[in-house]
Write a structure and sequence with these properties.
Number of helices: 5
Distance between the termini: 34 Å
Length: 267
């Protein structure tokens, strides 16, 4: 009996009391397939188009993006800039991590959508709704119901946050995307990238300086309060130091894109 109690005590001591979860947001900077769309103008991203976007270039970018995502080692990775579900499926099939995925079409003018990659034992999506310039996912994370809001237009994101706080005041929240102009405190949120931004860190290089365009807000989710940008030397243009883009003007440069991913730990 005492041996059993001692074993249980040792298990309790050695196991973490709270499971850490890593969340990332990554703008893929226009990852189109090679087929011409019937619903929006993407002719430039076809084999005969201005960018000569063929199967070889598409496959190269998918593999580069997958390398970045695998380097993040995150439980949940929010993506923006995928054209359709087939693109998300190709990324998921290339990853080393065994991610499930969720995709919704948001009917944007350029055909770019959101997607969510996640480990099914850490995150269970319950509902997913595409809105204008947004994807809103209600998910079970641990024992909590969490609203994940992904947005690239602060105006619509602001309205959605107001509605969610009014309708689901007890839900936890993760907000990510092009939201740096929003005031997170107004919604009871914390900007997990605020400190790196003050130190001059960024996930894109513009006008000679780094900018943290993409942010992650959370509410009472605890853990390490400061997020970070993931950067590797091989992802940068050796001549300019910027993230190597796929195209510079009309010239193919073969990089993964102009943006670096941002991430944080929550529990």
């Amino acid at each position: 009996m005492w041996r059993t109690l001692l074993s249980l005590l040792l298990i309790t001591i050695t196991q973490p009391l709270v499971a850490q979860l890593r969340f990332a947001y990554y703008d893929l900077d226009h990852l189109y397939d090679t087929e011409r769309s019937l619903f929006y103008h993407d002719d430039a991203y076809t084999p005969d188009g201005r960018y000569r976007w063929d199967a070889e270039r598409y496959s190269r970018k998918v593999h580069q993006v997958a390398t970045v995502i695998d380097s993040l080692r995150c439980d949940i990775v929010a993506l923006y800039g995928v054209e359709n579900e087939q693109v998300v499926r190709d990324i998921a099939a290339t990853l080393e991590g065994d991610y499930a995925y969720l995709h919704r079409t948001i009917n944007s003018f350029d055909g770019m959508d959101f997607a969510l990659l996640y480990y099914a034992d850490r995150c269970e999506p319950l509902t997913a709704e595409a809105k204008r310039a947004m994807l809103v996912v209600e998910a079970r994370i641990g024992h909590d119901t969490t609203n994940i809001v992904l947005g690239v237009d602060p105006r619509y994101t602001r309205m959605e946050l107001n509605e969610l706080r009014e309708e689901h005041p007890t839900h936890r929240m993760i907000v990510a995307g092009k939201i740096s102009s929003l005031d997170p405190a107004r919604y009871g949120l914390i900007d997990r990238l605020a400190a790196p931004a003050r130190r001059g860190h960024g996930n894109r290089l513009r006008n000679g300086g780094w900018q943290l365009r993409d942010r992650i807000f959370t509410d009472t989710l605890s853990g390490r309060r400061e997020g970070a940008v993931l950067i590797r030397r091989e992802w940068l243009d050796p001549s300019s130091g910027e993230p190597l883009p796929t195209y510079r003007s009309n010239r193919y440069t073969g990089g993964a894109g102009r943006f670096l991913p941002v991430w944080c730990e929550i529990e």
